[in-house]
Amino acid sequence: MNIIIGLLSGIAASMGFGGGFVLIIYLTAFAGVNQITAQGVNLLFFLPVALVSLVIHQKNRLIKWKVLLKLIPGGLLGIASGAFIAAHIDVSFLQKMFAGLLIFVGFKELFHKNVDTGTKTKEK
């Protein structure tokens, strides 16, 4: 089962869907791991997935480096803030926040209207 969950998480993460939701739900709901530990495992799991995805996306010229460089400072600040907050929040509240986020994103995606941005996909 762990291999299947790892595979699903890796596929979702490399496609940009945030595979952590699969991994964290599995770890907390089915493997009996507490929320904080599951988040740590998810972060470590993400490192090799991100590296492989970065190489493949760069090869396919899908990364806009100018945009990325502008986002990095805020991302670093968010990482530090999130880690600090997560370490000082009650685990049950953190679980409820995560569940609420999943429900919100699920409903948003379910009822979101697709808007054509006018961009073309790369054809092979």
Question: Can you offer a commentary on this structure?
Answer:
- The chain has five helices and no strands.
- It has 124 residues and is mainly α.
- α2 (20-30) runs antiparallel to α3.
- The protein starts with a helix and ends in a 13-residue tail after the last helix.
- The model has no long low-confidence stretch (mean pLDDT 85).
Shape: globular
Mean of the pLDDT scores? 85
Strand share of the residues? under 5%
Main sheet?
Answer: none
Q: Count of helical segments?
A: 5
In which range does the helix fraction lie?
over 70%
**Secondary-structure class:** mainly alpha
SSE succession:
HHHHH
Radius of gyration (CA) equals 17 Å
Distance between the termini: 35 Å
List keywords for this structure.
5 helices; mainly alpha; 124 residues; single chain
Brief overview, please?
By secondary structure, this protein is mainly alpha-helical. 75% of the residues lie in helices and 0% in strands.
Helix and strand arrangement:
Blueprint: H1 2-14, H2 20-30, H3 35-59, H4 65-87, H5 91-111
